[in-house]
Amino acid sequence: MSFYVYVIKSEVNGKLYTGHTKNLKKRLNEHNAGRTKSIKPNIPYKVIYTEQFESRIEAVRREKYLKSGVGREFLRETL
Q: At the fourth CATH level, which superfamily is domain 3-78?
């Protein structure tokens, strides 16, 4: 089973959110339905970046990297 690391962007104010999931479409729907309290005020969101991994451990490791200072810089350069 694949796991995904994703970055979504608020269509309201441009804020980014990074996470990981098994089902990207379902997770985006949950975000846009307001089921994630910390980002609820900024809905709707769209997916702007994804990476696929074979294990959850790899996905979590990459998510942590993307949330670090170096990872955020990587995203700024890539996006």
A: GIY-YIG endonuclease (3.40.1440.10)
70, amino acid identity? V
Q: If you ran DSSP here, which 8-state letter would residue 39 be given?
A: G
Strand order of the sheet with strand 45-53? 16-21, 3-10, 45-53
Q: Tell me the pLDDT band of 1, cut-offs 50, 70 and 90.
A: confident
Q: What is the mean pLDDT of residues 43-70?
A: 97
What does the DSSP assignment read for 50-78? EEEESSHHHHHHHHHHHHSHHHHHHHHHH
Residue ranges covered by each domain of the chain: 3-78
Residue-averaged pLDDT of the chain: 96
